[in-house]
Each structure stands twice: as C-alpha cells, then as structure tokens.
Specification:
There is one protein chain. This protein is of the alpha+beta class and about 200 residues long. Helix 1 runs antiparallel to helix 2. It contains six helices and eight strands; from the N terminus they run H-H-E-E-E-H-H-E-H-E-H-E-E-E. It has a single domain, classed as Muramoyl-pentapeptide Carboxypeptidase, domain 2. It has an eight-stranded mixed beta sheet with strand order 3-2-1-4-5-7-6-8.
Length: about 200
C-alpha cells in the first residue's frame, strides 16, 4: 500500500506540474493549480482504498453500458471481472479474453486524479488476432504485437475531460504504455512497459 501510495502521489505532483504548464496563459495558473491539488489528492487517497473500486464504461461500438464494483473488501470480485471481460470483448468477432485487472486499477487512479465523473467511453478493449491482423493490413499504426491482443490495453476517452489533460494525467501515473490520438479523440493505456507515443 505504501509503494502504491507513493507512486500515485508522484503522479499527482507530475500531473499538477503538467497542468500548470498548460495553464500558463493565465497569470493565476500557479495559484489555481495549487488550490486544485487539495481535492485531487483527496480523491487519489480514495482511489487507493481497499474497500471498493468501481468503474463505469460505455462501448461506442455496441452502445452497451456497465457500472461495476470490481474490487471490494481488499480483493478483486471474480464475477465483476468476468462481466468486464465480456463487456470489453472484440466486438467484431465476439471473442472474449481475460482483461488484466491492473488496467482497471490504472483507470480508477486516472479517474481519481482528474476528478472525472461518469463512464469512460471505450473505443477498443480486447482485440482478437484476426481483427488485429485485418487492422494492421489497413494501417501501419496498428502494432502486430499489440497489448490489445493480450487483454492489457484499452483505447478510451472520458466525456467532460479535455483529452490533453487526460493524456497528461495518464503519463503521470507512469504505470504502462500511453498513446495520444487527438485526431481520433482517444488515448491508449496499457499495462505493458512504461512508454509513450503519439
């Protein structure tokens, strides 16, 4: 818990610095950033609570929605994880794959860090080999060994939150890969090695 708290505290500091830079157009940017840190830190502390972690999603392709308490009383909830595996299935083929629970923890921390409300919009969760191959043939931007194939990645946005701010917050977590796709209005997050790209 101490290690996790330290990591998220560092993320809060990094995110606050990034937001200060973004806000330099205002002479009050530094003061506003400092003031904003208090509620963000409070939410970050809540994010580390072992008592319960909940996430909500909207799938842009299937129009399905879900809200799930995936972690409760100090442990992951198996039925909740199973439901998320199905929700994040390859919508093109219907294939289902186990999603890395650490990805949900990243998203939970991201939402707490940005004080986001509501459901994440999911553009892509699990991607089957068949789908990935077809997409790779159409675009070199689709990796042949994508983390989506392993159930370790998600492409998403959070309505009501500026994408550049969401991107900065995701980078500050330093918890995996982060891709930035402003023209398509989403960021990529995964639980692989820490890296970034646009």
């Amino acid at each position: 818990m101490t290690v996790a708290f330290g990591r998220l505290s560092a993320a809060i500091e990094s995110y606050s610095v990034a937001m200060t830079i973004v806000s330099r157009r205002s002479v009050f940017g530094l003061a506003a950033g400092a003031a904003a840190l208090v509620p963000v830190f409070a939410h970050a502390t809540a994010a580390l609570s072992p008592l319960g972690r909940e996430l909500a999603f909207y799938n842009i392709h299937t129009s399905e929605t879900t809200r799930v308490l995936y972690f409760d009383n100090g442990k992951y909830v198996p039925d909740a994880l199973e439901s998320l595996n199905h929700f994040l299935r390859d919508w093109r083929t219907g294939d289902i794959h186990t999603i890395d629970p650490a990805l949900f923890d990243q998203l939970h921390d991201l939402q707490a860090l940005t004080e986001g409300q509501g459901a994440f919009t999911v553009i892509c969760g699990y991607r089957s080999p068949k789908t990935n191959e077809a997409l790779h043939e159409r675009s070199s931007g689709v990796a042949t060994h994508s983390q989506h194939l392993l159930g370790k990645a998600m492409d998403l946005n959070l309505p009501g939150k500026d994408l550049s701010h969401l991107h900065a917050a995701a980078l500050s977590l330093k918890a995996g890969g982060v891709g930035y796709y402003p023209n398509s209005d989403f960021i990529h997050m995964d639980t692989g090695p820490v890296r970034q790209w646009t």
